[in-house]
Write a structure and sequence with these properties.
- With 294 residues, the protein is of the alpha+beta class.
- It has helices at residues 6-18, 51-63, 124-127, 141-151, 159-165, 196-200, 204-214, 240-246, 286-292; strands spanning 35-36, 67-78, 81-92, 98-104, 107-114, 117-121, 136-140, 175-182, 185-195, 217-224, 230-238, 257-266, 282-284.
- The protein has a single domain (6-287), classed as Clam (outer membrane lipoprotein receptor (LolB), chain A).
- Helices cover 27% and strands 34% of the residues.
- A 13-stranded mixed β-sheet has the order 1-8-9-10-11-12-2-3-4-5-6-7-13.
- It starts with 5 loop residues before the first helix and ends with a helix.
């Protein structure tokens, strides 16, 4: 598999963290996993509830399960090159606690999120990049979010953040695309819109930056099971505008990166037991990451 350049990888991680792969979906299909049927139009699927009502309730229906197994796929393409990041583990859908094993470029990274702190156990070959020799690094997601509010960047992938997007849908109609099996489970696929202002959570400058980069809304695909829980969530985005925005020199030839992020949830109610690594094995790199700014 071809490698994406360092700048492309930075853009990928930036977008994956800030938007969790949030995408402008313009009729893109799924990523090939599962079997789809023909589109089903705007019919209702649960008594008298409309398609829009079903989709808007999906976030709460999924949270009621409390926990789930999670698979994450981030696929990036830049100037004809591709890189794929995969992850699998468990997540507490309510408080965001998670444990993932992430694979990219032949490397494996163990990641934990506990009480808004993100921990990663890096391979030895990567530890020197952040100036530490301990096996674990720690990042305060709250501090990173504050830095993102000032710079428009965020460099950490937090799967719980993507889950929140399903609770920030616009009041517009949802579109029922069709049905599909995911790991043997029958699902209904929908195309919906995420409100950029909701993503900014009251931060007006951040909302303005997101609108400039992505427009007023972010199209998203959701696959719901027969209990209206989210089984798959998918975003696509073209990072060309993001890259040029991040380049302080105003590059005349910004590198175009296309990013697709897919999250799949299964085994709802699974046990999630995640704790921070020992403090003596951990280096806090929050300041280094915020100062690097990409």
């Amino acid at each position: 598999m071809a490698r994406v350049s360092r700048r492309s990888r930075t853009a990928v991680v930036t977008a994956a963290g800030l938007l969790a792969g949030t995408a402008v979906l313009t009729g893109c299909g799924d990523d090939g996993n599962g079997s789809a049927s023909e589109p089903g139009g705007e019919e209702t699927r649960d008594g008298d509830r409309s398609t829009t009502e079903v989709v808007r309730a999906a976030h709460e229906e999924t949270l009621e399960a409390e926990t789930a197994k999670l698979e994450l796929r981030v696929r990036a393409a830049a100037d004809g090159e591709q890189q794929t990041i995969t992850g699998n583990g468990v997540i507490d859908l309510v408080d965001g606690t998670s444990r993932l094993t992430i694979g990219t470029g032949g490397q494996k990274i163990e990641q934990r999120v506990v009480e808004q702190d993100l921990y990663q156990r890096l391979p030895e070959s990567l530890r020197g990049q952040l100036g530490g020799d301990k096996p674990w690094i720690k990042v305060d997601l709250g501090e990173i979010a504050l830095a993102a509010g000032g710079t428009g960047e965020l460099q950490i992938t937090d799967p719980a953040q993507a889950m929140e997007y399903a609770g920030a849908l616009t009041d517009g109609d949802a579109e029922r695309v069709g049905t599909e099996k995911i790991d043997g489970v029958e699902t209904t696929k929908y195309r919906v819109e995420v409100d950029v202002d909701e993503l900014a959570r009251g931060d007006n400058p951040q909302a303005q930056r997101l609108r400039e980069q992505l427009g007023d809304t972010l199209p998203m695909h959701l696959w719901l099971d027969d209990e209206d829980r989210i089984r798959r969530q998918q975003f696509d985005i073209d990072l060309g505008a993001v890259n040029s925005t991040q380049d302080p020199q105003g590059s005349k030839n910004p590198q175009s990166t296309a990013l697709r992020t897919t999250l799949e949830f299964s085994d709802f109610g699974t046990e999630v037991d995640v704790s921070p690594p020992p403090a003596e094995d951990t280096t806090d790199v929050t300041d280094k990451i915020t100062k690097r700014g990409g």
